[in-house]
Design brief:
CATH class of the largest domain in chain A: Alpha Beta
CATH topology of the largest domain in chain A: Rossmann fold
Order of helices and strands of chain A: EHEHHEHEHEEEHH
Strand content of chain B: 5-15%
Protein name (chain B): 5,10-methylenetetrahydrofolate reductase
Radius of gyration of chain A: 21 Å
Shape of chain A: elongated
Oligomer: heterodimer
Keywords (chain B): FAD, Flavoprotein, Oxidoreductase
Largest sheet of chain B: 8 strands, parallel, barrel
CATH architecture of chain B: Alpha-Beta Barrel
Strand content of chain A: 15-25%
CATH topology of chain B: TIM Barrel
Strand order of the largest sheet of chain A: 3-2-4-5
Number of domains of chain B: 1
Largest sheet of chain A: 4 strands, parallel
Number of helices of chain A: 7
Radius of gyration of chain B: 19 Å
Number of strands of chain A: 7
InterPro entries (chain B): FAD-linked_oxidoreductase-like (IPR029041), Mehydrof_redctse-like (IPR003171)
Number of helices of chain B: 11
Pfam families (chain B): MTHFR
Pathway (chain B): One-carbon metabolism; tetrahydrofolate interconversion
């Protein structure tokens, strides 16, 4: 899923000088699961904007903001969009871009899109995949170094980890440590010997 | 009138440094940092203080991710002073186009010795917002250098003329770190002429490390940072990956009335021990250059002719 997080409200407001009539559109998929663009968040956003003196003409939830057939299908989600002078989208950047392509008014994000991660056992997991277009995560026990090592090193760790923690952030596990533990667990440490050629970007 | 200009091109002469590696001499390299500015005089001064003892100077590449003058420029200027140079190249700041073109440039200016490394992440340095590159990792960069030597760039396009590098890389010396050893093996497999290590303080530990890589037959230059205080030792233990200063050494530093002198003494003892187990040393003096001559003499290393 696409991991996004709420922008500070002040930053959202900064984009709304002369905004006119505002419509707030949430997203029923990732942003709902992450509690950054579901129904309660859209309602709260409408309320906060009104409290800040803005004219909000409606809010709604798209089934998936990143997937609209046409302008008509967008309007079905919230007919008031047609009368809006500004749309605020509470979804990932993909959702915002699709909505923007269907309307002729300014569209502003209420969230930051952070990574392609996952959500399990109640925790958001960041940076699981870098969407590189050539998946070889199986060679690393399912722990993708392109996504999970900040340096994207494919042939082993840098010398910067300390006690299994990443050089970049001591709260973060070294991806290569995780790769090692996982490969050991599944009895495939032999995979570590393979030399990977540079990626094609 | 000819459009041809006279250029100084240094054809593939055997590197003086490589010859030293292949000789029986104990090899000594030292680090020189380019300035954070345009005046190279203090770097020249530091190099001048110890040049008679040192076989080649590693010119650091924005080390610790702190922005400094290009090692290519600094290396060239040191070369003009008659010093042998090992160009450091990190994978942090350049994509494969820039890495390859700088490598060709370095070689054309007579700097065939190259030591490559991943490079500290930008957030560790003084331009923390920099976009990190890491287009190639160090194993892949060694592969790219092989390609250049074979007359092709990394994409397979032919070169008009090709270099012949003396290739080095860095390593930690923890024998109980399988991933570090695995990566070291990969680097050796790609073809390498020397390793320079992170600072060594526990000689017994280092011997175990050397035993664990004895099948590779690659010259190893053991890293050395003379201690200046017990505080510095504790700081490195806590903050610098791959460095481990034992309690015994910290106690020695603490009980000494002249810790800087004690640090040099310890370092000299270590050099004497290291002469028995590896091809040479790589000194990282960290601003301590004026004391290094004394250190070498204490360790029984004398001026090279």
């Amino acid at each position: 899923m696409i991991i996004s997080s709420s922008k500070p409200f002040e930053e959202i407001l900064e984009n709304l000088d002369d905004s006119g009539k505002i419509f707030v559109l949430g997203c029923g998929v990732c942003a709902t699961k992450l509690h950054v663009g579901g129904e309660p968040e859209v309602e709260a956003m409408c309320r906060k904007l009104r409290d800040a003196g803005k004219e909000v003409i409606g809010g709604g939830i798209a089934k998936a903001a990143c997937s609209f057939k046409s302008r008509e299908s967008l309007l079905e989600n919230g007919p008031a969009i047609e009368k809006a002078d500004t749309i605020i989208v509470m979804s990932c950047g993909s959702g915002l871009s699709v909505v923007s392509s269907l309307v002729d008014v300014p569209v502003h994000p209420a969230t930051n899109t952070d990574s392609l991660g996952g959500y399990s056992e109640g925790h958001v997991r960041q940076d699981l995949c870098a969407m590189c277009g050539s998946c070889i995560a199986d060679s690393f026990g399912g722990v993708c170094p392109t996504a999970r090592c900040p340096k994207g090193l494919m042939n082993g760790p840098c010398g910067g980890a300390m006690e299994g923690k990443c050089e970049v952030d001591p709260d973060r596990e070294c991806a290569w440590e995780l790769i090692y533990l996982r490969l050991k667990e599944i009895g495939r440490l032999d995979l570590l010997e393979r030399i990977f050629e540079p990626k094609e970007y | 009138m000819s459009l041809k200009t006279n250029v100084t091109y240094y054809p593939a002469m055997p590197s003086a440094f490589k010859e030293k590696l292949l000789s029986d001499d104990f090899v000594i390299t030292s680090e020189i940092s380019p300035p954070k500015g345009v005046d190279v005089s203090s770097a020249f001064e530091e190099a001048g203080l110890i040049k008679d003892y040192v076989d080649a100077f590693n010119v650091t590449d924005n080390q610790r991710a702190v922005m400094r003058m290009s090692p290519l420029a600094m290396g060239h200027l040191l070369k003009e002073q008659g010093l042998d140079v090992i160009m450091q190249f990190t994978c942090r700041d350049r994509n494969r186009l820039a890495l390859q073109s700088d490598l060709l440039g370095a070689y054309a200016m007579g700097m065939e010795n190259v030591c490559i490394m991943s490079g500290d992440y930008p957030t560790k340095g003084d331009n923390p917002g920099a976009k990190p590159v890491y287009d190639l990792d160090s194993v892949q960069l060694l592969g790219a250098m092989n390609r250049l030597e074979e007359g092709y760039d990394i994409a397979g396009n032919p070169l008009e003329s090709s270099p012949s590098f003396t290739k080095g890389a860095v390593c930690n010396t923890e024998p109980d770190q399988p991933l570090q050893l695995m990566k070291l093996e990969k680097k050796a497999h790609m073809g390498i002429d020397f390793f320079q290590t992170q600072a060594v303080y526990d000689i017994g530990h280092f011997e175990t490390f050397m035993d664990s890589i004895s099948h590779m037959d690659v010259p190893v230059l053991a890293g050395l940072i003379p201690l200046k205080s017990a505080h510095m030792a504790r700081f490195m233990n806590e903050k610098i990956p791959g460095i481990r200063v034992g309690d015994e050494l910290i106690a020695r530093m603490e009980s000494s009335t002249d810790p800087a002198e004690e640090g040099l003494l310890i370092c000299a003892e270590q050099i004497r021990e290291l002469r028995k187990v590896c091809r040479g040393i790589h000194l990282m003096p960290i601003g301590h250059y004026s004391h290094i001559t004394a250190l070498f003499e204490m360790a029984g290393l004398h001026e090279k002719n």
